[in-house]
Amino acid sequence: MRRDQDIERDDAGGGGAVPFADNGRGLEGVLARPVPLWSLALALLLVPVTAIGTGAIVDGWEKSGALGRAAITLARVPDTLKHMFRGTAPYFGGKYEKLPGGFTRDPGFTDPGYTLISPFDPARKRSVVQVMRLSDGAVVHEFVPDVDAANAASRFTSALTDLHRDKNAARNRLMHPLLLADGSLVLHDSSPLARYDACGKLLWSLDGIFNHSTELGPDGNLWVPYRYPVPREPGVKADFWDDSVAQVSTEGKLLKVDRVADILERNGLARLWRGRPYTQDPFHLNDIQPAMADGRFWKKGDLFLSLRNLSLIALYRPETGKILWWKIGPWRFQHDVSILDDHRISVFDNNTLMGYPGERVNGHNRLLVFDFDSKATSSPWDKGFAANQIATRAQGRGTPLPGGDAMVEETEQGRLVRMSPQGALRWRYISADSAERRMALSWARYLDPTKDGPAIQATVNAKCS
Prior knowledge:
By secondary structure, the chain is α+β, with helices and mostly antiparallel strands. The protein is built from 11 helices and 29 strands. The strands form 7 sheets. Strands 7, 8, 9, 10, 11, 12, 13 and 14 form an 8-stranded antiparallel sheet that branches. A 5-stranded antiparallel sheet has the order 1-28-27-26-25, with no helix packed on it. It has a 4-stranded antiparallel sheet with strand order 6-5-2-29. The longest helix has 23 residues, at 37-59. The chain is globular, with a radius of gyration of 27 Å. Mean pLDDT is 89; it is low at 1-24.
């Protein structure tokens, strides 16, 4: 029987040769052959040399041409494999109350406003943007932006992200959408900034890594955090987050870019980050809030900047490059600055303790109010945050509303509520699938019909096939 098998193998191989055969033992014979010591030593030497060389090329990949791009591609293989086996839905892995997804409200309260939200749609297997009427929870318009068209026009290469792998339509979270008066949307997700019409068709895209908030200034231009794909800061690694303040026209023209490192340097505040151990993400600019009118402590066109990783809020005048005021704490790793009147701001305080593995919230988040007159900080909604156990470790939004209520987004847990200072829920939206598994939201925006009426009506009137 053994001889017949060898004959069949000879016929298949052609010319009478038996590949990988050694005295009839096949592959076993090859593996049993003695290996010269010099070849083993050479192989062991080549492994660390190759690793060091690849690492050096990755660190300076942008200067290494095709070899650098190849090294970055190779370095991303583990991440790419991980993405292949991970779903696209932004599920929250922590603890939460099991609740059905969707909108519910207190029947004794009617909210005249709307909200602009970006939930993940399990049926479409991607995020969408919805204009939701808060009096009854009806979705009056839905956008399905063609983000792949914006990505297709992109030309940047960066160690920070693989745009087509990480930010395609299935994975793009459509962060902090801004609704313009004609019913079009401006959005991003650490990806190109893009504007889409009411039917989701791409109008323009601006290449680069735009992230976090998108706000309209008093002159009609946009203010958006921007991160250089290849850092400008000398001596840092390729994955350094070189955060900047970007001004963009609504036609998609980049008007101004001001690096956070330069802003701090020229205002004598570089010590706030240069005096700390090296980190890839020293600033984490997550909000640019323009002043739409003069106040007693700022003027129209000034910007409030939120630098999360410094727990710092700064009042910045872009026309002069000067920081007029800054404060670290009592907020910790905060998000979302809002201007309340001519002398007060609110700050969504994540209240996160970063000195623990994995980080954790110190009880619950807070929505703080800082008064420039008295220099005092208060927490008017503290009872409500505690009663509803609002505790998103990262991100989060807090929008004070007329009458004393606030719209609060618990981003990671996929919960959006309007609540009183004492915690009474006027309405609630839960982002969850049919199994009540929570999915993150992406920075909802409250729409006031008295101010945003034309934009809302434009979406309602849009005729999309």
